């Protein structure tokens, strides 16, 4: 088994003819991901690396009904329409790479996705990878080695650093999910953790959090319920960030009412999560808890 993406993934690339879409389509194909179609309005009938391009998702699905996953490389001002089109087409999983989508638009399509039964990853996500099986995203695959550690992260670059540390230590990753760094996202820590709970290949979970919002605190409340019985290690970025200043991600901003690294660490520690002070400490903690 693998979480979200695997050898059965059949991928549609929305925005395939753009610079980013074209570049990452090649890398996903090279990794072995089954990319079967692309969509760019006005570019129907063309091909990108042998992948047929269609003007709409409806046309693409008429020819490729096996599509079960879509990845969005559409510019921010058109991205929400692209996501809504994918939801209306009944695609099971939509990975939204695009950043700078207005929050009210993200609220609209994430709520609509829940109503229609589509899972949204992102926006502003590096994507999802199940090492050796499939990559739906923009992450550098060389830092990921197959193993038994589930990874859920709000940060792209920290995901790569920690995946590399885990791989170098001889462990490896079952699936890595970038949930995205925006204030409003689709799949969150709790929903992603439930997926890993059902995955027999995942023996432990690493979460990478950061300042801002209450995603980590909500995850701690979920763990307190006792449903998740696999060990969890966490690293929280932004310990030295000043209140009121955005640090990198749109969602990484401490308000006067909370969102600090200290508050997140306290909430997680109280429910038994092992906290790493640095990314390089994570493999050491994993070895200890997996003995």
Summarize the structure in words.
With 291 residues, the protein is α/β, with parallel strands linked by helices. It folds into 2 domains: 11-121, Rossmann fold; 139-290, 3-Layer(aba) Sandwich (Rossmann fold), CATH 3.40.50. It has helices spanning 19-31, 57-63, 76-88, 103-116, 156-168, 189-197, 215-224, 261-270, 282-290, and strands at 11-14, 35-39, 47-48, 51-54, 69-72, 93-96, 119-121, 127-130, 134-137, 146-153, 173-178, 204-210, 232-237, 274-275. The chain has a 7-stranded mixed sheet with strand order 3-4-2-1-5-6-7, with helices on both faces. A 7-stranded mixed sheet has the order 9-8-11-10-12-13-14, with helices on both faces. Strand 6, helix 4 (103-116) and strand 7 (119-121) form a beta-alpha-beta unit. Helix 3 runs parallel beside helix 4 (103-116). The longest helix is centred in the middle third of the chain and has 14 residues, at 103-116. It is globular. It starts with 10 loop residues before the first strand and ends with a helix. The model has no long low-confidence stretch (mean pLDDT 94).
């Amino acid at each position: 088994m693998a979480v979200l993406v695997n050898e059965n993934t059949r991928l549609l690339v929305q925005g395939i003819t753009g610079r980013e879409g074209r570049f990452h389509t090649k890398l996903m194909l090279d990794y072995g991901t089954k990319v079967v179609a692309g969509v760019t309005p006005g570019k129907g009938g063309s091909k990108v690396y042998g992948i047929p391009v269609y003007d709409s998702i409806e046309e693409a699905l008429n020819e490729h009904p096996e599509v079960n996953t879509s990845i969005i490389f559409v510019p921010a001002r058109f991205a929400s329409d692209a996501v809504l089109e994918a939801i209306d087409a009944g695609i099971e999983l939509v990975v939204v790479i695009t950043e700078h989508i207005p929050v009210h638009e993200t609220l609209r399509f994430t709520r609509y996705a829940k109503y229609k039964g589509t899972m949204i990853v992102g926006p502003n996500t590096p994507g999802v990878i199940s090492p050796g099986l499939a990559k739906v995203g923009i992450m550098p695959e060389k830092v990921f080695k197959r193993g038994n550690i589930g990874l859920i992260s709000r940060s792209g670059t920290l995901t790569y650093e920690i995946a590399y540390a885990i791989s170098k230590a001889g462990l490896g990753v079952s699936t890595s999910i970038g949930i995205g760094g925006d204030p409003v996202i689709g799949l969150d820590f709790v929903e992603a953790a439930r997926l890993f709970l059902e995955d027999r290949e995942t023996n432990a979970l690493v979460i990478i959090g950061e300042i801002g919002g209450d995603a980590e605190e909500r995850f701690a409340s979920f763990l307190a319920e006792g449903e998740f019985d696999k060990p969890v290690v966490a690293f929280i970025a932004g310990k030295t960030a000043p209140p009121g200043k955005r640090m990198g991600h749109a969602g990484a901003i401490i308000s006067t009412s909370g969102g600090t690294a200290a508050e997140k660490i306290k909430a997680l520690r109280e429910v038994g999560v092992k906290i790493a002070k640095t990314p390089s400490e994570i493999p050491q903690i994993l070895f200890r808890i997996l003995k």
